Amino acid sequence: YLSGERTPHNNANAQGVFFGLTHEHDAAALGYAVLEGVGFGLLDGWQALTAGGGDAESLALVGGGARSEWWAKVLASLLNTRLVNGVGAEAGGALGAARLAWLACGGTVDEVCRPPDIARVAEPDPELAAALQPRHARFQRLYTALRSEFS
Q1: Cβ distance 119 to 86 under 8 Å?
Q2: 3-class secondary structure, 5
Q3: What is the rounded CA–CA span in Å between residue 10 and residue 28?
Q4: pTM to 2 decimals?
Q5: Is residue 15 assigned to a domain?
Q6: I want to staple 29 with a disulfide (CB 3.0 to 4.6 A). Which of 12, 13, 25, 119 is the partner?
Q7: Structural domain boundaries, residue 129
Q8: Cβ neighbours of residue 59 under 8 Å, at least 6 residues apart?
Q9: Measuring CA to CA, which residue among 89, 3, 83 is closest to residue 41?
């Protein structure tokens, strides 16, 4: 966490941590650890939503990360949910703002909320999910243990 964390921890003081770092880790391992941590944070949020009764057969992956098939596979595996990239998914935030403007200018909900054509689908990989599960459990234990240290 570089700017605190929102859902589900609601902790503006949460900070990034590398744990278990040794001389065997290189820059690529650190980069992977950052992405894994982002994924684990998203999983924590998804688990909070599903614990509250939310569910979805698929989720939309938007933003710059939507360009990466690898990232989509990791997230789909972590969330155990199909991820769908619509055409133009990398500009999802801008598209959302444009849709709100269109609605404000008289567009109908049916027109404005039509889903984009599907460009790519990432399915969960059970082997990858199984490999990430104990790492996520460790992530959660570390967050709990370090929460009081964030200031």
Answers
A1: yes
A2: strand
A3: 29
A4: 0.86
A5: no
A6: 25
A7: 27-149
A8: 79, 81, 82, 83, 84
A9: 3
In a domain, 135, yes or no: yes
Distance from C-alpha of 58 to C-alpha of 7, rounded to nearest angstrom: 20
Cβ atoms of 24 and 54 within 8 Å: the answer is: no
- Rounded to the nearest angstrom, the gap between the alpha carbon of residue 116 and the centroid of all alpha carbons in its chain is 20
With CA atoms as reference, report the closest residue to 19 among 34, 4, 3: 34
Tell me whether residue 132 is in a domain. Answer: yes
Total domains present in the chain: 1
User: What's the whole-number average pLDDT of the chain?
Assistant: 93
Measured distance CA(35)–CA(33) in Å, rounded: 5
Question: Is 109 part of any domain?
Answer: yes
CA 70 distance to own-chain centroid: 13
CATH number, domain at 114? Answer: 3.30.420.40
Tokens coding 110: 């049916």
Q: Is 18 exposed, middle or buried (0-12, 13-18, 19+ CB in 10 A)?
A: exposed
pLDDT digits (tens, 9 = 90+) for 40-91: 999 999 999 999 998 899 999 988 888 999 999 999 999 999 999 989 888 8
Q: Rounded to the nearest 10 degrees, what angle do helices 126-146 and 27-51 cross at?
A: 90
